[in-house]
Amino acid sequence: LVDLREDIFAAIAHEYRELASQLGIDTVHALPVVAPSGDNVGQRSARMPWYQGPCLLELLEAAEPGMAQSSHFRMPVQWVNRPDASFRGYAGTVCDGRVNVGDEIVVQPAMRRARIERIVTANGDLPHAVSGQAVTLTLDREVDVSRGDVIAEAAHPAPVADQFAAHVLWMGDEPLLPHRAYWLKIGSRTVNARVTSIKHKVDVNTQAELAARRLELNEVGYCNLDVDHAIPFECYEDSRPLGGFILIDRQTNATVACGMLDFALRRAANVHWQHTDVDKEARSVSKGQQARCLWFTGLSGAGKSTIANLVERRLHALGFHTYMLDGDNLRHGLNNDLGFTPEARVENVRRVAEVAHLMVDAGLIVLVCVISPFQSERRFARSLFDGDEFLEVFVDTTLEECERRDSKGLYRKARAGEILNFTGIDSPYEAPEQAELHLRTAGLRPEQLAEQVVEQLLSGQGT
To answer: CB-hemisphere CA count at 13 Å for 327?
Structure first.
């Protein structure tokens, strides 16, 4: 299309070399090829005498495959092999380094030590194994090892952390919103994860760093990640198997992102959970109740706060220790810096859920009234609580009825375009699929609905 012009090729090659320099790529080979006619693909082209370099096939045959790799032994455990009581092995592929029979190893993240007793393969035992080999390791003592653990060289274990800086390529149709919960798969381990902040997104053409609150399809961002417990890892530059990860949507199981770990955040090592002698159980016993979180969700105007207020009055009269967290009230203080965009709604629910979790830890029965329109955020809230501590209460009222009750005039303003991102109008509400209590409000008074909630709660209090 450009008449095989040398100056055009030189300009394109120059642009690629500049981009490679920005990305930290040291070596770049530029070839002028015409694929349909095979010019410079299998042999040098007579139509481009100005090009004196190798053809594509020659270059590929001479290229040395490169792979980021740590020099220290690492093997993620893919499977615990126990065919009978006489054999227990740990199967996986050595991703970095070398291991020998007799070497001392450590199982991470628990840091349990042992020595390699055997290196078993389908073709017999080996004296050693190196990167790329699939093997089963047996140890000289009983050690608790599970899928997802990493067996590492004892003298040089992998770093362990639960907060990271990472590059993320977003591949989901829905945008990446900070604080939304996903599954993170790294090696053979899958953990709960959240992107806590997007530091910037990257312009793929100029490599410029741009401010961003979300990532859309095919955008690349530099983010902070938080996982629910510490994991062994390597930075991607040193080890692709232990530095590369994917993010998975917890509802659809779709892979929505891939990423590269850069480093562990310093606060991951500096902040530790402080043990207290008086725990949740002791606080609950002193109050004579089981701590619970009643999470009321539904459209604006559905009656969440009205019903929760009646429930709290009834529980207080029965001698229970309670507290009510109302979404509107919290936006006057704790959440007064948040708007109503999808990103702000995610953060709003996260903060409320964390406060409710602290109140349950204090032994209280806490009643939360927030629209919480997204299933993913309600799942995150539920994940903070143990067993049956969390009761989701779906206050199911039709949109038409909510608009009829519109004492604050919010729906009218939303219909007129004066309020944007209003749930039920121009922002979706994802109804609960498996709420512990489904309150269908049609034809029932708030007092009757509140009594249903009290009965459900008391049935779990041993009352």
So the answer is: 27
